[in-house]
Amino acid sequence: MIRPELRAVLWAWREVLVAGAVVCLGAWIAAQGGYLLVPLGGVAALAGLGMGVLAWRRRRFAAKGDAPGVVRVDEGQISYFGPEVGGFVSLPDLVEIRLIRMRGRRLWRLKQADGQAVLIPLDAMGAEALFDAFGSLPGLTSRALVAALEEAPSGPGLVAEVAENRVIWRREGRGVVRA
After folding, report:
1. 23, 166, 170, 175: most buried by Cβ count inside 10 Å?
2. Number of C-alpha atoms within 13 angstroms, CB side, residue 73?
3. Element (H, E) at 41
4. Contact assessment for residue 125 and residue 69, using Cβ atoms and an 8 Å cutoff
5. Which of 59, 57, 60, 89 is nearest to 72 (CA)?
6. What percent of the chain has pLDDT over 70?
7. Residue 38: is its pLDDT beyond 90?
């Protein structure tokens, strides 16, 4: 009954649409008036607005899924299964997240406390699950994650394939201690 293209778009934007519905419901409840319904509707509308902001950021973080490999996040462990390489990183052992560019493809470089690193393409299937996994790390906000994904400016006189190697997050208190 619904075209497959429209269904795919609606499915991709489902969280934002649900948040918008919560805002509308809250506004409708507040419009009914009264000492109970106005604050209750206002709280519901604010909750929907907060959900909407987070859903919008998560949507901007979503991967296209056209890079090789599959990402899984399960019980605090990030797994990447690539066609030639892969690896696992435990969130408690994660000490650094970098965004790098290699051979024209942008990658997450996740470094563990023991020095091992896993490279995960931004566009790998399932990479959108990294948004919530990274969001649980201390000191890393969803705003910083979305801002990190903004492309480097390109134009006349600028190199389109800029070498990229940015630290997005680093765990405090880990590393070499000097006396």
Report:
1. 23
2. 16
3. helix 37-61
4. yes
5. 89
6. 87
7. yes
Determine if the pTM surpasses 0.70. no
- What tens digit of pLDDT does each residue of 135-151 get? 889 988 888 888 888 76
For 172, list phi and psi in degrees, rounded to 5.
-80, 145
Give, in order, the Cα–Cα distances in Å from 65 to each of 28, 35, 73. 38, 49, 16
Amino acid identity of residue 24, one-letter, is C
Instruction: Order across the sheet with 77-81: list the strands.
Output: 86-90, 77-81, 67-74, 124-125
| Cα-based angle 134, 125, 12 (whole degrees, multiple of 5) | 85
Q: What angle do CA 61, 62, 67 make, to 5 degrees?
A: 115
Residue labelled with tokens 């979305």:
146
Query: Measured between alpha carbons, how far is 12 from 131 in angstroms, rounded to an integer?
Result: 15
Q: For position 87, what pLDDT does the model report?
A: 92
DSSP assignment of 85-148 equals -EEEEEGGGEEEEEEEEETTEEEEEEEETTS-EEEEETTEETTTHHHHHHHTSTT--HHHHHHH
